[in-house]
Amino acid sequence: LQFVESGGGLVQPGGSLTLSCAASGFTLRYYAIAWFRQAPGKEREGVSCITSTDNSTISADSVKGRFTISIDNAKNTVYLQMTSLKPEDTATYYCSRQPGRCRNWEGFPSWGQGTRVTVSS
To answer: Each residue of 14-23: pLDDT tens digit?
Structure first.
Protein backbone atom coordinates (compact mmCIF):
# COMPACT_ATOMS: atom_id res chain seq x y z
CA LEU A 1 0.00 0.00 0.00
CA GLN A 2 1.59 3.24 -1.03
CA PHE A 3 1.26 6.69 -2.51
CA VAL A 4 3.84 7.88 -5.00
CA GLU A 5 4.04 11.64 -5.40
CA SER A 6 5.65 13.26 -8.44
CA GLY A 7 5.72 16.47 -10.44
CA GLY A 8 7.68 18.74 -8.15
CA GLY A 9 10.54 20.94 -9.24
CA LEU A 10 11.91 24.44 -9.44
CA VAL A 11 9.58 27.13 -10.75
CA GLN A 12 9.67 30.91 -10.85
CA PRO A 13 7.17 32.99 -8.88
CA GLY A 14 3.94 33.23 -10.81
CA GLY A 15 4.55 29.89 -12.48
CA SER A 16 2.59 26.66 -12.44
CA LEU A 17 3.12 23.00 -11.60
CA THR A 18 0.88 19.97 -11.47
CA LEU A 19 1.62 17.34 -8.85
CA SER A 20 0.47 13.73 -9.10
CA CYS A 21 -0.29 11.28 -6.31
CA ALA A 22 -0.61 7.71 -7.60
CA ALA A 23 -2.04 5.09 -5.26
CA SER A 24 -1.05 1.47 -5.48
CA GLY A 25 -2.30 -1.52 -3.55
CA PHE A 26 -5.68 0.02 -2.83
CA THR A 27 -8.42 1.96 -4.55
CA LEU A 28 -9.04 5.61 -3.82
CA ARG A 29 -12.78 5.12 -3.81
CA TYR A 30 -14.49 5.79 -0.47
CA TYR A 31 -11.53 7.77 0.84
CA ALA A 32 -10.77 11.40 1.48
CA ILE A 33 -7.41 12.14 -0.13
CA ALA A 34 -5.47 15.19 0.95
CA TRP A 35 -2.37 17.04 -0.08
CA PHE A 36 -0.19 18.33 2.74
CA ARG A 37 3.02 20.31 2.64
CA GLN A 38 5.88 20.87 5.00
CA ALA A 39 8.54 23.52 4.69
CA PRO A 40 11.85 23.21 6.55
CA GLY A 41 11.40 24.13 10.18
CA LYS A 42 7.63 24.36 9.90
CA GLU A 43 4.76 22.08 10.81
CA ARG A 44 2.82 20.08 8.28
CA GLU A 45 0.06 22.11 6.67
CA GLY A 46 -3.09 20.85 5.00
CA VAL A 47 -3.38 22.18 1.45
CA SER A 48 -6.34 20.58 -0.35
CA CYS A 49 -8.56 17.57 0.15
CA ILE A 50 -10.97 15.74 -2.15
CA THR A 51 -13.73 13.32 -1.21
CA SER A 52 -13.63 10.54 -3.79
CA THR A 53 -17.34 9.69 -3.61
CA ASP A 54 -18.61 13.07 -4.79
CA ASN A 55 -15.47 15.07 -5.70
CA SER A 56 -16.22 17.72 -3.08
CA THR A 57 -13.15 19.61 -1.93
CA ILE A 58 -11.78 21.79 0.82
CA SER A 59 -8.68 23.95 0.62
CA ALA A 60 -6.54 26.07 2.87
CA ASP A 61 -7.19 29.79 2.65
CA SER A 62 -3.59 30.32 1.56
CA VAL A 63 -4.15 28.41 -1.70
CA LYS A 64 -7.78 29.13 -2.55
CA GLY A 65 -8.14 30.44 -6.07
CA ARG A 66 -4.66 29.22 -6.99
CA PHE A 67 -4.59 25.45 -6.37
CA THR A 68 -7.06 22.89 -7.70
CA ILE A 69 -7.31 19.28 -6.52
CA SER A 70 -8.82 16.62 -8.75
CA ILE A 71 -9.11 12.85 -8.94
CA ASP A 72 -8.99 10.34 -11.78
CA ASN A 73 -10.51 7.17 -10.37
CA ALA A 74 -9.66 5.19 -13.50
CA LYS A 75 -5.97 5.98 -12.96
CA ASN A 76 -6.27 5.80 -9.17
CA THR A 77 -4.47 9.14 -9.04
CA VAL A 78 -5.06 12.51 -7.41
CA TYR A 79 -3.66 15.71 -8.90
CA LEU A 80 -2.85 19.12 -7.49
CA GLN A 81 -2.76 21.86 -10.10
CA MET A 82 -0.86 24.81 -8.70
CA THR A 83 -0.88 28.23 -10.36
CA SER A 84 0.35 31.70 -9.42
CA LEU A 85 2.99 30.07 -7.26
CA LYS A 86 4.65 32.13 -4.54
CA PRO A 87 7.95 31.64 -2.71
CA GLU A 88 5.97 30.75 0.41
CA ASP A 89 4.59 27.71 -1.44
CA THR A 90 8.07 26.19 -1.28
CA ALA A 91 7.79 22.89 0.59
CA THR A 92 7.71 19.12 0.23
CA TYR A 93 4.21 18.07 -0.78
CA TYR A 94 2.71 14.78 0.43
CA CYS A 95 -0.56 13.01 -0.05
CA SER A 96 -2.46 10.95 2.47
CA ARG A 97 -5.84 9.34 2.91
CA GLN A 98 -8.47 8.53 5.46
CA PRO A 99 -11.84 6.84 5.13
CA GLY A 100 -14.87 9.00 4.51
CA ARG A 101 -15.14 12.68 3.68
CA CYS A 102 -12.92 15.74 3.81
CA ARG A 103 -13.90 17.72 6.88
CA ASN A 104 -10.63 19.04 8.27
CA TRP A 105 -6.95 18.16 8.36
CA GLU A 106 -7.10 15.86 11.38
CA GLY A 107 -6.58 12.12 11.26
CA PHE A 108 -4.49 11.84 8.11
CA PRO A 109 -1.41 9.67 8.70
CA SER A 110 2.01 10.59 7.43
CA TRP A 111 2.60 8.79 4.14
CA GLY A 112 5.16 8.69 1.36
CA GLN A 113 8.34 10.50 0.47
CA GLY A 114 6.67 13.49 -1.07
CA THR A 115 7.74 15.69 -3.95
CA ARG A 116 9.74 18.87 -3.49
CA VAL A 117 8.46 22.19 -4.85
CA THR A 118 10.77 25.20 -4.90
CA VAL A 119 9.45 28.59 -5.97
CA SER A 120 12.32 30.95 -6.59
CA SER A 121 13.65 33.38 -9.14
So the answer is: 999 999 999 9
Cα→Cα distances 119→16, 49, 107, Å: 10, 22, 29
Burial class (CB in 10 A: 0-12, 13-18, 19+), 4: middle
N-to-C CA span, the chain = 37
Rounded to 5 degrees, what angle do the CA atoms 93, 96, 102 make? Answer: 110
Task: Give CA–CA dist 51/44, Å, rounded.
Answer: 20
Residues in a beta bridge with 77: 22, 72
> pLDDT tens-digit profile of 42-74?
999 999 999 999 999 999 999 999 999 999 999
For the beta carbon of residue 86, count every other beta carbon within 10 angstroms: 14
